[in-house]
Amino acid sequence: MSVKTSSTVYVAVLVLIVNLIRVETTVISQSAPRTDFDSSSNSATTLLSRFIKNSYPVKNTIEEGLRTANLNNTCSQHVLQFWEQIKGLIGNDTGGDDVFSIESWALQMIDAWGKIPEGLLSGHINVLGDFDECLAVRSPVGNDNADPFQGKYCLIYTIPKIDAGLDQTQDSKPGPVHKGERSIENLLKLLTIVGNSEMPIVPSIGTCLPSTCSDDEIFSIVSALLSNLNLLPITSYCSTDEAPKLGTGAITTISFLGVLIMLVFVGTLVDLSVLYAYLPPPPSSNQLFQICKAFSLATNGQKFLNTETSKNDIGCLHGIRFLSASWVVLGHTFFMGTMQPVWNLVDAYSMITTSVPILFITNAPVVVDVFFVMGGFLVSLTLLALLEKTKGNLRSLPMVYLHRYLRITPLYMIIIAFTIFVFPLMGSGPTWHITKTWAGFCEKNWWKNLLYINNLPIYDGANDPLDAPCHGIAWYLGVDMQLFILSPFLLYPILKWKRLGVAPLAILTAVSIVLPGVLTYVNDYPPLGKPFQSATSKYSQEAYSPTYMRAAPYLIGMWAGILYRKMQKLSITKDYRLSPLQVIGAWLIAFTIGFTVLLSAHKFMDPEYILRRGESAIFVVGTRVAWAMAISWLIFACALGYGGWINQILSWRPFVPLGRLTFAIYLVSMDVQFLFHFQYRQPISFDVYHMVNLYFAHLFMSCLVAVVCTLVVEAPFMQLLKILLPTRDGKKNSSKVRGGSNDTEELPRIS
């Protein structure tokens, strides 16, 4: 919807809302004197009849639509049968006997439709009807009845219809939205903003019609019904209670998971039998036993719960991992709250665009840079140690890359297969179609995730709605894998040529800092992703997820790892330590930078804020670099003993096993939230307390699912890698990495 047509939208929606309010007022005025419900059995049915009449003032339109709609014979017959039953309710008479004169299936069907909502001025623009009541509709079977049919629920998304006679050339723009104000004018301005956002929020209505009608036929019928309300249906999503069919992909995925579970069962049984001497202990060279043991819940569970760490372990990384993953879940919880229908859109808009404390949630995407900094830091430690050990020999790199790929891909691909074939079968609801769309993205583009190029702007959603990133949050893995592949070629010169060798890393770091700012300025990207933003629909693909836009924190983390190794050697050889004044000053700077980055997004959260050209570029460059430096100091200080009580908290022993869950939490948390939010039958009330409660529930469930994924998939495959994948020396891979999680971490990953 362009700015030029906003004034005509105002007129169309204003007429609609005034009519709806008039209808509600009519219902109240007509039924107000009838308060003696107990004195007459007809009183309640009279009120219901009047409400339905006034909720659907479209009798002539329905009859005309049924005459002009191009319906198949069966659909037409069933719709007319339905219409004959309910037309008395929608007629102009006000009798109360109409409810008793129609059959129950027809009353259920009309009752399941979304109706004029209360709280319209609060932003209650999604009237979902009764999903389950519609699906439960069954037409009677009789000699004089047509073929039986069921109820078919369709959620219809609409936009205001622009009158062709109105001036559509006026270049008008909605004025400021008064936060929290409930008025027609304010709601119109808000609808214009959220309707133009990257993830538009538009009115919707739940409908219920015979299942013998196709989706297109129902869309045609509803278009006729809504034509006199100045609403234009734009798309629809339909459901019936027909049991979903298991396709080949679903059967294959479920069978594979069943095999994994069987292997876990057998492996555990064999392991326990040896442990408790029911079977003689096999020799350590018995590879078959080692493979069985790799799937043992007993062995993997013991390793998972082990909180012991090596002397070279950087303990704070465990706490940073888990708390950062928890922060990601928190941000996604509030994000999900804006994706599903809400009762109080006006309040949600006010909260998200004006609240300062909520910036710690709406600005949560900065937490991804924490993972990038940790990834770069650990890569510097592990690869420099490897290069020193091999005296700069790069022949082992292919094996390092292979190990890295096989380390994270099995669970990743299983989650994607589950998302495509199984997850859409697990729920239902008015907005469950979103999960099917999510699965459609993966069905088309899963191979890009397999190649770890899913974060690049190589999608054509304008011509193909399903050409979008698969498992959207996995863009991080694409960036991380690409930078991991590049990192040895940046670290090798440092080992080979010392000071001169830092030039490639220094040049690339400078480019990675400047380039996002230049591209943001040239393409006029917004400074950050935010709810209700009016931005290019390609922001996420072009400005948020590409490697060249996100590399700076990773490279800064590499610098922190290099400096850490240098300081570690100095502390051993020369007993060098930072002074207390230097440490206090560094901590003060880091805290100041961190809070400034989080709070500096406040003015940008308001969609009405007019950005000056270049302001976004400065914000993008400044905040990412500053945040990465603050996180680098946090890791650096804790690793070298300057962390004090902060390091004690982050190195808390329970964080060791919890930190091992972060990869799985990252992968499954969105599916866990989808399963909950998109089965809602009615809009929710969006408020902080509600969302925080949901956050803790989502975090707990994500951890629970992550434990299963870790013990059944991730840990067994890691053990198989150690058994089957040799190192360059021909030995089995069993190396560990500083900052890792004992036996469950070898190379940096999502951690």
TrEMBL record:
Q: Where is the signal peptide?
A: 1-25
Check the record and name the Pfam families matching this protein. Acyl_transf_3, NRF
Question: Which keywords belong to this entry?
Answer: Membrane, Signal, Transmembrane, Transmembrane helix
Do you know which InterPro entries this protein is assigned to? Acyl_transf_3_dom, Nose-resist-to-fluoxetine_N, O2_lipid_transport_reg
Asked whether the keyword DNA-binding is assigned, the reply is no
Q: Where in the numbering of this chain does the Nose resistant-to-fluoxetine protein N-terminal domain appear?
A: 85-240
TM ranges: 254-279, 366-387, 408-426, 473-495, 502-522, 547-564, 584-605, 625-646, 658-680, 692-713
Annotated region Disordered: the residues are: 730-751
| Presence of keyword Amino-acid biosynthesis | no
Protein name stated in the entry: Nose resistant-to-fluoxetine protein N-terminal domain-containing protein
